Amino acid sequence: MTWDPGGDVVEVLRTPAPGAARGTYRAFGETLRGLKTTFGRFTEKAVTIQYPEEKTPVYPRFRGRHKLHRFEDTNLEKCVGCSLCAAACPADCIRVVAAENTPENRVSAGERYAAVYEINLSRCIFCGYCEVACPFDAITMGHDYEMSDYTRSDLIFTKEMLLAEPIERTPLRREGE
Amino acid sequence: MLATVGFYEAWWIQIVKAIVIFAVGLQLVPIVLIAERKLLGRFQARYGPNRVGPYGALQPLADIVKLLTKEQFRPSTSAGFLFALAPTISILTAVAAFAIIPFGNVQHIFGTPVGLYGIDVSIGPLYLFAFGAVAFYGIMLGGWSSGSKYSFLGAMRGAAQLISYEVSQGLALVGVIFTAGTLSLTGIVQAQQGMWYIVPQFFGFVVFLVAGFAETNRAPFDLTEADAELVGGYNTEYGGGRFASYYFAEYLNVLVVSGIVTTVFLGGWLMPFGIHPPGWVDPFVVLFKMGLMTFFFIWIRATLPRLRYDQLMSFGWKILLPLATLNALVTAVLVVVTH
């Protein structure tokens, strides 16, 4: 008993033999079919996303520009300056200088805090290892992807910049999109 | 023997007519240009140019300004005089061919009879083919005088293309001329009062249209340009204003072929179903039909891939020519039998 492939069979379309009258007739028919296809596209809406005005929505797990977080209740920084992110970074673009918390100047929840926290985004490869390495979920990858700038030094993001909310929110893809 | 001209006006009317027709005709070229880019965009599910001006309407202006402010570059291997002359030939022949398209019958404007066409020659189609053949020199000389192999290959392809389609194009019109009994384009339009020639001369229409695509060097017969393999063919070495001339001539040729098809097969200024509008509507009817034909040109360009060189040759000689000949023969027999 032979196997019946069912509806999966795709008939092979052969080009018309050169010069043959039958081939020309078929080419004429195929031309009409092609015209119908292109006219179908013509009546549809354009799929273009007009970029600077409308942005491509990103997936929730999209790895964009980093964010540093604070505790919502105490407003203390989550980062304790342990430098594990800097150790994990394959591009070596994170620089952390830690300092001791004092009772007068309490910045983070832990013993120490990051006095300097810089990410050189012109080096960053957006691998997300820093996020994985962080024991306090202090650093996560955000959704921003518009980070072009005129000078290289402008791409070195300081702790204040990373803690701040992005100026313009990147649209997020909806469920099932 | 010289060709006779169907209708004479005073010299000043002819000058005014020339200015008006070309003022309108040449304004159509940028419109066709933006229409092509917008429509091609829509055919490919994108928008086309939409940044310059409202809906990108000023894009042709931006293109022209860009091209005209560029340096007039000339390769050191080129033949100077011919290199500059070739685009001029292209644009000149296109403009000259535009002169015979009738936009309406003789109208009485302020009591003065004026024919709404550049000139009504008694040899309309022959005039067209004459300028079509000369237009080819624009491509041939341009390709040869550039002194570049790509340009030369493009020009050679143009030569092969010309001899493959021009005979069939001529024969496709022979059937119409038999039926109408006149070579004057206004006469041909008037002979279509009862029925447009697209119906009785359908094969002539198809052959002429296909040959028209070849004459304007547009897809699927744009193998003289063939951007993919010849980097632009005959106009590879052209830039700036000279390239703009070629570009302009191409789109004017599209308009000319649309106009000729409108005149010869689509009833010119005649309206279907026996509607007889006042005379001033005629040019708009012609322009509307030309617009439809131009849309079809763009539609075809968006649909069909470029033919290979040998495919064009075998198509021209083995299909188009026999079809056109058969069409002319059958028409001749029918005309003799019925009259």
Rg of chain A over CA atoms, rounded to whole Å, is 28 Å
> Segments of chain A where pLDDT lies below 50 for 5+ residues?
none
Instruction: Please state roughly what percent of the residues of chain A sit in beta strands, choosing from under 5%, 5-15%, 15-25%, 25-35%, 35-45% or over 45%.
Output: 5-15%
Count of discrete alpha- or pi-helical segments spanning 4 or more residues of chain B? 11
Principal-axes shape call of chain A? elongated
Can you offer a commentary on this structure?
The complex is a heterodimer of chains A (177) and B (339). Chain A is α+β, with helices and mostly antiparallel strands and 177 residues long. Chain A has two domains: 10-43, no CATH class; 66-163, Alpha-Beta Plaits, CATH 3.30.70.3270. Chain A is built from four helices and five strands, in the order αβαββαββα. In chain A, the strands form two sheets. Chain A has a three-stranded antiparallel β-sheet. Chain A has a two-stranded antiparallel ribbon with strand order 1-4. Chain A is elongated, with a radius of gyration of 28 Å. The mean pLDDT of chain A is 83. In chain B, 45% of the residues are buried. Chain B has one domain. Chain B contains eleven helices and two strands. The longest helix of chain B is centred in the first third of the chain and has 33 residues, at 11-43. Chain B is 64% helix and 2% strand. In chain B, helix 4 runs antiparallel to helix 5 (149-180). The two termini of chain B are 28 Å apart. The model of chain B has no long low-confidence stretch (mean pLDDT 83). Chain B is mostly helical and 339 residues long. The A-B interface holds A 18-19, 21, 24, 31, 34-35, 37-39, 41-42, 44-48, 50 and B 39, 41-47, 299-300, 302-304, 310-311, 314-315, 318-319.
